[in-house]
Inverse folding.
């Protein structure tokens, strides 16, 4: 998963040897029957897309936090397998109620562990889809262990530009609305960013499914 350190100049950078491996998840992979299927008219989809001002409602997420709604637009062109899996998990309700277990002020907020500890996932590892999209404020990217192909369900949202992560983690989306509410997520203490009584994801929905 993403880790932060400090260089002599005071700038944060990734410490590879300080990255902890994700523990084996006890969660079974989702069955196809558990995944909600999209079924709506083009007119309705267009209306919903317009109301949230997204480019593609089928590849956009509405993330509800305690302070407000956040829109994440996914990019299947750069990470098709990760986007497809995230959509499966969102439609199955996997993320609803999960904690932001690791939050570092000025760096990122991480969530997606069913145990709320950073040690679990959905039970399906994904082959890395590293790309040239930079980690900047609002970037949504996958957490992983030291192994490149270990991303599962955990992801993080960058509070600020994090160029030292570029090319090492799979970027799959970007916050296009409501970043001010991401900023309000409760921060952790200490270098690891563990959060006491952390904030939770109220819900995540594919915008094309809302109605």
């Amino acid at each position: 998963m993403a880790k932060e350190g400090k260089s002599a100049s005071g700038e944060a950078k990734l410490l590879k040897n300080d990255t902890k491996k994700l523990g084996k998840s006890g969660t079974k992979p989702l069955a196809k029957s558990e995944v909600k299927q999209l079924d709506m008219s083009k007119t309705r989809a267009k209306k919903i897309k317009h109301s949230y001002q997204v480019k593609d409602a089928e590849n956009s997420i509405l993330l509800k936090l305690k302070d407000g709604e956040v829109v994440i637009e996914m990019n299947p062109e750069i990470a098709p397998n990760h986007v497809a899996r995230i959509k499966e998990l969102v439609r199955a309700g996997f993320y609803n109620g999960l904690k932001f277990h690791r939050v570092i002020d000025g760096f990122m907020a991480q969530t997606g562990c069913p145990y709320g500890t950073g040690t679990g996932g959905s039970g399906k590892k994904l082959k890395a889809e590293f790309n040239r999209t930079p980690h900047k404020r609002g970037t949504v990217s996958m957490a992983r262990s030291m192994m490149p192909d270990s991303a599962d369900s955990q992801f993080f949202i960058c509070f600020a530009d994090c160029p030292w992560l570029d090319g090492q983690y799979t970027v799959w989306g970007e916050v296009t609305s409501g970043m001010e509410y991401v900023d309000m997520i409760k921060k952790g203490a200490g270098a690891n960013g563990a959060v006491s009584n952390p904030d939770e994801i109220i819900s995540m929905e594919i915008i094309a499914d809302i109605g």
In short: Helices lie at 42-52, 80-91, 179-182. The first helix runs from residue 42 to 52. The chain has one domain: 43-209.
